[in-house]
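Bug #2210: token dump truncated for histidine kinase?
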Amino acid sequence: MPQRNPDALLRKLRSESATERLEAARFFAAHATAAEEQALREAAARETVTWIKSALRRAVARVSPTAQPAGSLASVDTDELPKGFAAQIFAEALETTTAQLLHEVEPILGSLRLSAEGEVANFAQSNTKQNLDRLDEFLSALGRLRRAASAPKIDEFALDVAVGRCIDELARPQGLRLLRAGPTPCVVDGDSSLVSLSISNGLRNAVEATVAANAPLEDVPITVSWGATDIDYWFSIVDQGIGFKGVIQKAFDIGSTTKEGHLGMGLAIVQQSMESLGGRVTLVPNERGVRFELRWPKKAG
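Reproduced locally. Full output below:
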């Protein structure tokens, strides 16, 4: 059963809590319908907090092409913000900034690739193509980061089915086994795309770490499990790979990586996805390998 309740979210726009107002405004920025346009316009007119007003203007623009653009965002002293509001502001800034960057850069990169294909000799084997491919990968990662920062759309979905789909889509070497342990069916509530995005990132990291350990693949299976407690849902991956080198907390910073040729966006995307759901991601080094765990609350959002 969908958890979206427009009436409840519209009431939040009148809340004295800036955190609740921003939560609702960001949701409507991604999911507003024409039925809510007038209420959103009224909320934007009375709103005094810049970040909330910006999200409301984007919500109005979503259903009204003639609406004014959101405009620039002012600086905010995060020390004076209520609990949870700073995280909402960060997500709002991340989403709007990456959206603008993608909007400006993607057409330029497309034109550059077309020109290079016609002007660079032996383009397919050139360094120019490799560098353009790298830029494409970066923009794709930015797109995933933007999605992770967006307001979640909460629905019921089968976690076991989502896990199976991510495993089926995973590229892995022959001989590497993935062991599954979890209830079927396992119906949860959350944003299935954000959860799947996080699961896929975790699986890729586990496969890469396992291959890098140079052990016989049949001896180092990856264990994937999932389930629910009385308060939250969880998913975990335990690998027997090379383990994690460095400071765990820094692994979640954008651009942080210990792997040559990697963009360092994967765990940052996972962390933002979980924060958007009110959850968390943890990495726990084991004697051999790492345990990767996602948790998000029941009735998230």
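Output looks complete on our side. Residues 1-151 form one domain. Marking as cannot-reproduce; reopen if the truncation happens again.
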